[in-house]
Structures
1.
Amino acid sequence: MTKYPITIKEIQAGLKAGEFSAVELTTAVFENIEQVDPKIKGFLALNKEEALEQAKASDERGYGDDAPALNGVPIAIKDNILTKDLETTAASKMLEGFIPPFDATVVEKLKDAGAVIIGKTNLDEFAMGGTTETSYYQNTHNAWDQSCVPGGSSGGSAAVVASRQVPAALGSDTGGSIRQPAAFNGLVGLKPTYGAVSRYGAIGFGSSFDQVGPLTLTVEDNAKLLEVIAGVDEKDMTSLPTEKYNYTEKLGQDIKGLKIAVPKAYLLAELQAEVKASLDSAIEYFKSQGAIVEEVELDLFEEGTTLYHILASAEASTNLGRFDGIRYGYRSPDANSLDEIYVQSRTEGFGPEVQKRIVRGTYILSGDGYHEYFEKAAKVRTLLAQEYKEIFEDYDMILGPTTVETAYKLGEKYDEKLADLNDALVVSANLAGIPALSFLAGFDGEDLPIGLQLIGPANSEASLYQVADNFEKAHDYVNKAPNL
Amino acid sequence: MINQAKVKEVAETIKLDLTDELVNECVEDLTKLAQEKAKLDEIDTENVKPTYYGNDLKNVYRSDKAVKNDNYQELLERAPLTRDGYVVVPTIIED
C-alpha cells in the first residue's frame, strides 16, 4: 500500500493522472488487507471478486471531468448496512449467513458514484455497544495500540481506515457510534443531520436516532463522501426533502467572526488532562483565527444519557421484534412449536447485551412504563433540543471533547460513571437530530489520538467542515500514521 | 417493583428466555434506570410536547402507483424452510 496514496483526494488525483488504475489499486488494497487486518481484525467479509469487477468498470468509465464522484475509490461498509449478495450480519449470530436481496440506498449511491466496495466491517452486535466487543464474531483492535479498543459501535470501520487499509468507510451513529470510534482512532467522523442520509437498508436500532455517516482521514474526504450518500429517498419517509447537498462549499473560507460556544457542562473535571489541554489549545487556535469562542451555560447534559438509555432501548426492542426465526435469520433447530421458534431463535440468536437492551426497552414500553419512562423522556428530549436551538440563536456551533479519555484496553471493565459521561458528550446530537463532527486534535502521552467535537444546528454540516478543515490544515496530525 | 419475577415477566412478553445471570444483570440495569429516571421527574415538563421523531417532517407521501413485486422468490430464499412458495413453520394450532 506504500506505493498508493491513502486519501480519497490523492487516490482520485492519481487515477486521473494515470499513475495507476483502479484494478491495480484494488488489488493492492486486498494484498495490504492480508498483511494488516490480522492485527486489526476490522473486516468481517471481503468483497474481492465484485470489487475487482467494480474497479474494472471504473477504469472503463475513465477519470475525466464527467466521471462519477467516487469513481475507482475503495470504500468499506459497516456490517449493519445491507449490501446485495454480500453477507450482512450486524455482527450477530441472528444474521449469520444472511445474504441481502437488495442494497441499502447509501450503498446504491456509492455504486452509482463508481466506488469500489471492499468489504464489511465489524461492529458491536446490532450497533449496541461502545467498544465493538459485543460482536458475535471477533474483537477489533485499535489501529494505534492493538491492546486497546477501537471504540464502537463502528469500531471496525474506524480501525480499517485508521490502519490505512481503505481511505474511507461508512459507519452508523445512534448514540455516538461514528464519532467515538473516530476519536479513538484519530479520524474525521460525522453524524449527519437526522434525515440528511437515507436509513433505507440500514438495520434499525433506534429509528429516531440512527444516521449513517462517513469515517475518513481528512475533513475534505469526509465532506465529499457525505455529498454522495446524502439526499432525499422515497424509501425513507424520514429523509429530508433536499435532493443534493453541497458540503464542500465553505472549505478554505475564513473563520473570522464565526461564533463558537463551549458549554461549561462539557468541561468535566473527569476529562483526561491531555484531552482538556487539546481542547484549550484548539480554543486558543480558533481565537487566533478570529473566531469568537465563549463559554455558555447548558442545563441538560447528564440527563441526555438517561434519555438515550430510555428512548433508544425502547425503539430497539420494537425494531428487533422482527427477528423471530420465521422469514429470515437464525431459526433454532430444536424448536417444535411456534412459541419455541420465537423464544429459542431469539434467545440463541441474540447476544447478552442485545437481550438486556431489549428487556429494558420492553419494560419501558409496558404498562405504566410508557407514561413514566417513555413519554417523560420524550418530553425532556424536547427541552434538551430546545436548549441547543437557543444556543444556536447566538452561536454558529458548539465545540467540546468527543470523549472523556482516549482509548482504553480491550477487556477492561470501564468505569460506569465515565461511560455515562462519554454518552452524555455525544448523545445530545442524536437526541436533537443535529449534525456533529469529531476531528483529530492531537495525541496523548501514549500516542493515542484525541478527538474534539463540533456540533451545529440542523443542516450546518458545511460550516462544521469549514472549521474542522481550517484546524486540520494548520496542524500536522493527519500526516502521522500508526506503526503497523 | 423491579425484581427477578418482573424481569422474567418482561422477557416472556418479548419472547426471550434469559439465563439466571442475565436476569440478575437486568434487575441491576432496571434498578439503575429507575434511579436515573427519578432525576428526570424533577424536571418540569408540564405543557411540554413529547419528541418522538428525529425531525419535524409530517405526512410524507409518495404517489399511489402500483408497482409489481418481482422479487418474492429472492425473499423466500432467505427463509429457513420453504415449500411451494410458502414459509414452513411447525403446527400452530394445537388441539
Note: Helices of chain B lie at 4-13, 20-41, 72-77.
2.
Amino acid sequence: MLKLGTFDLHQLLATLEIFFLSKKYQLLQAIIFFVVGILLAKLFTRVVVHLLRLRLKKQLLMVVEKFCYYVSLIIVIIISLERAGLDLKVLLGAAGVFTVAIGFASQTSASNLISGLFLFGERPFVVGDNIEVDGVKGEVLSIDLLSTKLRTFDNLLVRIPNESLIKSRFINLTHFPIRRIDLILSLDYRENLERFRQILLKVVSETFLCLDEPAPKFVILGLAESGVEIRFSIWTKKENYDLLKSLMYEKILNMVQQNGLLVAYPHRVFIQRFDDDKKHSTHFSHPIEPQHEERKV
Amino acid sequence: MDTLIDISKLFHNQIWGQYSLNENESGHWRIGPLQIWIARFRSEWRIVTNSSEEHHDTTIQVKVPYETATIPKRSEWTRRYCVERTEDKLYLIPALADRSIVVRPEEAFYLPSKEETVLFINSVLWCKIFVGNSQYPKLIDTIPIYHLSDTWFGPSSIEGEICYAAKTGALQRLDLVRLSPYRVITKVYLKNLADNPLLLERIKLPVTNLSLYHAENGVFFTESVVLQREKMGQQVRFSLGRTPKEGGRLKRITTAERALEGHFVSRAMHTLFG
C-alpha cells in the first residue's frame, strides 16, 4: 500500500479510474478535461517557447507560440467534446454545412491570415522596427496572424489588418542603419553663400552625432522670393534621427545669431518715389532694398 | 594573458598602471585632451571625465592624492559606481577602440598594379579603469582619450558598418608620425596583385582583430596588418603580420577582442577600401 500520511494513493487512483470510465459524469469529465487541457496547453506552449527562445527571432517565436497554443486548444476542445458524449462524426457532418457560411463570413479574416503569412515571408519589417502607414508612425509591437499592432510615439495602440498592410504603401523608418536628415534653410540674398556653407560645416564637425561619411551636402534648391533656398543634408545613425534634427536647427540658429547672418524671411519694403514737381508720388514695394536714391517708407 | 598587476608593472614612470586610493581620497589624471578625476568613497567610486578638442595635446599629469572638494561637479561629466565596499587598488590600462577605424591617407593615391607600399596608422587609445585588490580586478569604465566621430564605411548607404573616423591620417614614414603615450601605431602593408591600379582614399582598419603591445620607450603598437588586393580584383585578403621591428622589443598588453585565425578574404573590396 502506498500511503501519503493517512491518505491511500491506491484507493485514490482506483476512485479516479471509476470516475473517468463511468458514463454517469460525462459532462463533469468534459469540463475537467477542458480546464486541465487549457492549463496543459499553456504549459506546453511555454515550454516550447522557452526551448526555442534563443534559436528563433522574436517575430517567429510569437508565431510559434500562437500556433502551439491554438493547435493544443483545438485538441483539448475535441477531446472534451468527445468526453461529453458528443459524436464528432455528426459534428463533422454539420461542419460541412457551416463551411459555406463560414467561408463567406471569414473572407476578410482569411485574407488577413494569408496576408500575414506573406508579411512573415517577405519581412519588409520586423518587431521593433518603426514604420509609417497612412500617416501613422509607430513601433511594431507584434505581427499577428490577422493584424499588426503598432505603438505610436505618444503611446497609443494602433491595430492594422494585415490585408491593409499588404495592399498599402508603408515606410520602414528603421530598416537601414543610417538615415539622412534634410535641413531646409533660407539665406538672405545679401549674405555670402560660401561663408554660410563654412559655418554649417563647422557646426557638423563639432557635432558627434553627425556621421563623417557620407559627407554632408549643401544643395541650392532655388532662388525664392525672400532668399536663397538651401537643403543641407547630413547623415546619422537611425536611432539619433529625431535628436540630431532638432539639435542641428538649434545649433545653426545659434551660429547664425553669433555670426550676425541674415536669414531670409518673407517681408515687404515699401518705397515712396517723388516726381520732379513733388506733387505726385509713386508707391511700390519689393522684397529687395533699392540701390538707388529713393526714400524708403 | 598576464594579470593586470603584471601589466601595470610595465608602465613605470607613465600614466598607465596601478594606483592606490584611501577612502575619501581622490586622484586626477591628465592624458592629453582627457582629464579624469576619480574619487573613492566607502561604497562608491565616482568618476568625472572631461575631454577637450585639443587632439594634439600631449600633456601627461598625475596628481594622487588630489583635493576632492575641487573636483568639478557637472552632472553630465560624472558617473557613480556603487559597490558593497570599495578597495584601495585602481588601475588605468590602455585599450584599443571597440570598433573599426577608418583612416585616410594624407592625400589619396594610386597603388599601381603589382606594387606594394607601407602605411603607418596612428589611432587613439581608450582608457579602461579597473578597481579591486584581487588577481582579477573589475572593469568599471572605458573612456576614449578623445571622442572620435562616427562614420559609415561601405559601398552604399544600405550596406556597410558604423566605424570611427580617425582624426589623423595614414603616413608612409614612421618618423613623421606624432608619437604620444595615448596613441597606438599600426603598420599596414598594402599589396595590389590585380591588373589595374588601386585608388586609396580610405582604409578601414579592423582594430577589434588586433592586440595591443607596449614598447620599452613607452610607445604602443599593434601587430602589423597585411591588406592584399587579390588578382581577381574584387577580393581582398586581410591577415595579421608580426609586430613591427620598428617597435623593438614589445610586450603584449591586451589580446584581440575578436581573434582572427589566419586571415579572412572578403569578396568585396569595399569592406576594407573605400
Note: DSSP finds one helix and 23 strands in chain B.
